[in-house]
Amino acid sequence: MHDIRAIRENPAAFDAAMARRGVENASSSLLEIDEARRAAIHAAETAQADQKAAAKQVGAAKAKGDEAEFERLRALVGEKKAEVSDMQARAKELDQQLTDALMSIPNLPYDDVPEGADEDDNVEIRRWGTPRSFDFTPKEHYDLAGVADGMDFETAAKLSGSRFVVLSGAVARIHRALAQFMVDTHVEENGLTETWTPVLVKEEMMYGTGQLPKFGEDSYQTTNGWWLVPTSEVTLTNIVNGMTVAESYLPRRYVAHSQCFRSEAGSAGRDTAGMLRQHQFEKVEMVSVTHPEKSREELDRMTGCAQGILERLGLPYRTVVLCTGDMGFGARRTHDIEVWLPGQDSYREISSVSVCGDFQARRMNARMKPADGGKPEFLHTLNGSGLAVGRTLIAVLENGQQADGSVTLPEVLHPYLRGKTTLSADGALV
Length: 430
Prior knowledge:
430 residues; alpha+beta; eight-stranded mixed beta sheet; 20% strand; elongated
């Protein structure tokens, strides 16, 4: 959410930044509503002052026995009271219109975010690892012999429909081991606080992190008004909703392993094979709440945390800065990490790390009180996958596959699998 005062003071700068995101003349409609809102507030205040002045004169007219003046003033008090009520209602209506409009406009990109229309204009900033050379044609994860019995899409379709999966046996165990490895690494090596939060949230929490009002169709809502979280970013970030914290409270760095739910409304026909794009999936999510002056360096730190998981697993990846046309609604700058999938012969997103500045904090009314006693200011928030568990499972299976359909598993997972090192061609851990 944006500061209307900043827009009012420099609409040209706001329009220029929004134009980079494909939104033209963004300030005009906002300032039109703001001007009408301020006029209604001023009219209400003027009418209220007139009402009070007339009310004071009513008693004097009565005391003088001036019945005509008394009646005129009494009628004037009634008129002004009605006018105050009307103008206050109008101001409230316009205030809500302004809030709704501000909540529907994306965040301002940092100046160093590359210009571009789509993913083809993203800029690579790091590459790690060399994709393995195979002496056979590598398969996608769901075609591997060792995976066949443990990744059941037919039963999932019977239970829930398309874009669900039932994992069982060794495959389910590897999936669980990956999540445990990620959380342990983030807690023990990266200094994050392990957190467990609900997957059902109130509507205002979805507004707080920017999923609503613009992207409601991408999530699921229950019949009693709760929303299923598309990511635990929603709950972790909203921990500070409505709070004013001391500067010494910061930074707060959280990590949570949770179920996530997405309708994938805008991705019809994309990645329908396998478990790359599911309605229900697991993710290890990182969220940082920081001092405003520290958020940019925190973006690099969080990116390094996610990259480190892939490096420990021995999975080649590249990191790109998203261009203005590909960046998410609430982000000021985003680093996407893409893991190499030999079955697709391409890099695919496995983590997206974003700095939001004060965009979410304004929506949540979350502030920091400076240590020097200055005026409270809005916090900064960041979020990122550390990592998407299902996509990491895909990468482990595809990169470790052998010609016979077995999979050699990363060394860091061996302790989580009671010393087992391989998913055999017949689906057993050995």
